[in-house]
Design goal:
Elements lengths: L4 H15 L7 H7 L6 E7 L1 H17 L3 E6 L8 H10 L8 E5 L2 H11 L6 E5 L16 H12 L3 E7 L11 H7 L2 E7 L4 E8 L6 E6 L1 H9 L11
Helix pairs in contact: 3-4, 5-6
């Protein structure tokens, strides 16, 4: 039987999606999610220290696979350890050449940063702590709409977007960002500490997988950062 044109197109789309789906380089997360798709938004959120260290691996791994742009949304108190990213790149046998980094200190700057990233050749866009400046009152969450819209626009452009997000201040389970943000995400994974030596990852949302969880060793996330602790940042990257 000759397959219909529609069936052929579906198969082609599935093959392309499979080709554009890559692992993030963290065993426990890769076990749960399988891989993170291109042209979609994936999110890892949870305990802040776990998210911070997971981001170092994610940035390095994604830069090795198609190039990456890193956007850091922060307040003045947070220090992002770019030496850890550089060390993971060396472990993976990749160069930091072409890794682009930008910082934003308020919502409006984050929106412009994401819009500008659309024109960058890198296939991957990593945004760390995108909603750190979210409003203190739920009724003011409309202010986050331009940020979520910018992320969706970058997604439509074909970028693989990976967000490293915090837990919402209005609950203990959902990521920060509000309902509009939550609906825009294809893959959501939450990380929680599970004692001193391990953490637990929860697959909260996935287009083709059921909810699941798995335990991982803290060493997956912390070894390199501990080795480089106390070093100065690469000022030329800022």
């Amino acid at each position: 039987m000759v397959p219909s044109a529609e069936a052929t197109y579906v198969e082609i789309r599935q093959q392309l999606a499979k080709q554009s789906c890559i692992k993030i380089g963290i065993p426990t997360i890769d076990h749960l999610a399988g891989c993170l798709p291109g042209g979609a938004i994936s999110e890892i959120y949870g305990d802040f220290d776990l998210i911070l260290h997971a981001s170092y691996i994610a940035v390095a791994s994604l830069h090795c696979r198609g190039g990456a742009a890193l956007g850091i949304v922060q307040d003045n108190q947070m220090t992002y350890d770019l030496y850890a990213v550089r060390t993971f790149l060396r472990i993976m046998g990749c160069s930091e050449d072409g890794l682009l980094i930008s910082r934003a200190f308020k919502i409006e700057d984050a929106v412009e940063m994401i819009k500008e990233a659309i024109s960058i050749p890198a296939e991957n866009l990593v945004i760390f702590d995108p909603y750190v400046h979210s409003p203190l009152q739920p009724k003011e969450y409309w202010r986050l709409t331009p940020l979520t819209a910018a992320l969706r626009k970058a997604m439509v452009s074909g970028k693989r977007i990976v967000l490293l997000n915090r837990v919402t201040k209005f609950g203990r389970f959902l990521p920060e960002g509000g309902k509009m943000h939550h609906h825009a995400i294809s893959v959501i994974i939450k990380l929680e500490r599970n004692g001193k030596k391990s953490y637990r990852a929860f697959l909260v949302k996935h287009p083709s997988k059921p909810e699941a969880s798995a335990s991982g060793s803290i060493r997956e996330l912390y070894e390199v950062s501990r080795e480089w602790g106390g070093q100065y940042l690469l000022l030329e990257w800022l």
